[in-house]
Amino acid sequence: MIEFFSANAAPVMFGAVIFFLLSGFPVAFALAACGLFFGFVGIEAGLLPSSLFQALPLRVFGIMQNDTLLAIPFFTLMGLILERSGMAEDLLDTVGQVFGPVRGGLALAVIFVGALLAATTGVVAASVISMGLISLPIMLRYGYSREIACGAITASGTLAQAIPPSLVLIVMADQLGRSVGDMYKGAFLPAFLLVALYAIFIIGLAIFKPKLVPALPPEALTHREPDGTSGLRSLLVFAVVTTAISTVFGMNYANILSAMNGTEAKPALDEIIVMAMSVGTIFALVAASVSRALKLGLLSRICQRVVFVLIPPLALIFLVLGTIFLGVATPTEGGAMGAVGAILLAAVRKRLDLKTLTQALESTTRLSCFVLFILIGSTIFSFTFTAVDGQHWVEHLFDKLPGGQIGFLIFVNVVIFALGFFLDFFEIAFILLPLLAPVADKLGIDLIWFGVMIAINMQTSFLTPPFGFALFYLRSVAPVSAFLDRVTGKRIEPVKTTQIYRGSVPFVLIQIFVLALIIIFPELVTGSLDAEVKVDLDTIEIEAPTSGGGWGAPAESGGW
């Protein structure tokens, strides 16, 4: 028995963890129990040194002192404050009024607001449930295809996995030993490419199958001018002016940065985009505030509503990302600034009370403790797993895969895609990433690219029938029986589970397409990162002064 355990300790440990996870045992305790049990068995059998667990307390205290993980409660609190202060309802109502008059407008509003919620809440469950409660009844009221309505809601909710500042990316960076800022930069373009493809899909439906995504009727448009006009022309002109200012600033951002630093600067594309959008949002907010304060009447009602509802959370997000991308603030400092900004925004809008703040703090504490306990459990497990040479066992598993890097990436993506049906992303990140990262690094795979790829993959598994978590979240709030609509008085039929499943399929295909693009074109991720400086130690020369008889003087002159 001892000989069998000695030869197969790593696969036995891994199999035991998988068994406990599939049995529903709490993840943190399953990991810690397996690590401690097999560690003590190995010590008693003489296979492991008796001093094995002496460094474990230092590891646990190291986790609690990890500044990177401190960003998780800050970003969680920011998202929860914005969500519970009614931001989602206001955003959906406002953006729906803007896009509603065109076919597919409500679905586009759901996707864009979903992307914004993803950037603020960072939690899939919160985004999907909020969008389902607010937007699904409206889309059913005005005759949207149930499949398209459900698919748009669940797909936009899963964007919380990939859009910075995402909790997933913070955990990925910590587990891969990379900078959170670099992980945000790497995920920026793929995430917004995903949003753009979602929008293109809805626009295509509006053109070729308009009955599936009808426009809102005129009576549904509530924010009108006193003369009965929509006011959208004013919004269009203001949007063009704001975009022009952002574009001009973006085109000259490198020159501005060079003048400020005194040296030539070459900022990355994502940094230029974030800073240009930050300037645009600040201009829009200041211009609308001046117009309202001085009663100039330059902007229509819908234009003012868009600015005062949409711009503050956008400005907060771009401010947080901008400071992180510029290196002015660490992700933890950026998260703290975002949390304070969210509290101030809620207070200014008179949406902050003691109950809201208490609920947000309690939810933040629960999630933070959940993450911390899983990380402690995974650390205990990896401690013993490394002691029995588990990392070498994992490497040997992938040695025989054909195809080198591509074969490894395809296999890992398939495994994580399957595990995503059953495990939360925290569990996958804390259990699998420490095992896979050394193998990926040994194969010469950029770990930022690897992390973004896994984040997009887990987003796909959240949406895939029949076990996708996002589908269950929407099922929990979608109507299960017929009801009378309170606005139109019409009977609305319930939403079937099969309709939720069918609606997710096209969006899953879009996500798989983006995942394939990331594998084929790594530049989508690595192109946003700072160029790695490689130093050849063989070419380094140290020149010392030869005059003055000092340190660098030749031997014959009495120096050395």
TrEMBL record:
Recorded superkingdom: Bacteria
Cellular compartments per GO CC: plasma membrane
Chain segments annotated as transmembrane: 12-31, 37-56, 68-86, 106-136, 148-172, 187-208, 234-252, 272-294, 306-326, 332-348, 369-388, 408-436, 466-484, 505-525
InterPro entries per record: DctM (IPR010656), TRAP_DctM (IPR004681)
Gene Ontology molecular-function annotations: transmembrane transporter activity
Locations listed in the record: Cell inner membrane
Recorded topology in the membrane: Multi-pass membrane protein
Stretches assigned to the TRAP C4-dicarboxylate transport system permease DctM subunit domain: 14-524
Main subcellular localisation: membrane
Keywords for the protein's UniProt record, in alphabetical order: Cell inner membrane, Cell membrane, Membrane, Transmembrane, Transmembrane helix, Transport
Manganese among keywords: no
Function: Part of the tripartite ATP-independent periplasmic (TRAP) transport system.
Name by which UniProt lists this protein: C4-dicarboxylate ABC transporter
Organism annotation: Parazoarcus communis
